[in-house]
Amino acid sequence: MSHKTKVVTLLIALVAWLGVAAYGYTQTDAAKTNLTRVVIGYQKADPVDIARQHGELAKKMKAKGYKVVFKEFQNGVALLTALKAGNINYARLGDTPPVVNQAAGLDLVYVAAGGSKVKGTAVLVKKNSNIKSMADLRGKRIAYAKGTTAQFMMVQALGTANLTVNDATLVDMDQSAASVAFAKGNVDAWVTWPPYTETAEVEQGAKILLDATGLAKDRDFFVSTRKYAKKNTDVSALLVSYLSSDMDWANANHDKLITMLAKTLHLSKTIVKRMIDRRHFSMGKVTPSILAEQQKIADVFYEQGLIEKKIKVSDAMLK
Hints:
The protein has 13 helices and eleven strands. By secondary structure, the chain is an alpha/beta fold. It folds into two domains: 34-116 and 219-316, D-Maltodextrin-Binding Protein, domain 2 (3-Layer(aba) Sandwich), CATH 3.40.190; 122-211, Periplasmic binding protein-like II (D-Maltodextrin-Binding Protein, domain 2, 3-Layer(aba) Sandwich). The strands form two sheets. Strands 2-1-3-10-4-11 form a six-stranded mixed sheet, with helices on both faces. The longest helix has 31 residues, at 3-33. It starts with a helix and ends in a 16-residue tail after the last helix.
């Protein structure tokens, strides 16, 4: 073979190789772009966060043609602001934010419901506090987050002592600010939820004055906008199914779950174990009894003047 022939042969081979490489790149890039993006908002240590860290949900959704993107928020108010703006497609919330936002005109729908956190949602007081009952909170400063499950819990807890929201000084602040205010003694009590409850108990010696048993469920909810949910019923069904499987895994693998969450939350295993031992994880159908729980929140908030519109919670179901 002449030198010229060799050069021509090499050039042909190079062109062919580049063609294959380019085709391969195109195929890879197409595979990426062909995945439909689904954005889910969550809060630390909630069912979605557990599924995110476990990793199975994202893998299963990818196999079905979806790329799941997770975005973390500090509370339900921020989550629903993002949902309303279209920045996320689904949100994992506590029980109160969906009610408040439905009353405010957000056309949301309940996609699924999870377990409750009655033992971890509580009214906390300092270790050496003289406050021994809810009646002792008359005229005191109580930290809470407006529009969250802490607000409903606070209303219900005050009611056990025949007190109303007008009988105490209510201080609306986010969880980080409330934790600092509570530690410094700038508030007399703090109404909060896991893992903040357990963190305050272990790190500050905080005492539970009253938990949510018989007062509030602080149930997990998975919601979306009606517009998105109506067009994506298949996506919703897949997500609920996979979330349910992850919750089964969480219930059956406490040791692994505690180790995983302790690392990502930067909390001691003692704190995380206390939080996990207080609850049962689930994610499934929104039953009539669960809707009744939500209706109670709506009715109490309307009677207390905390929402301006009387709503029917069942209207927030996809028909």
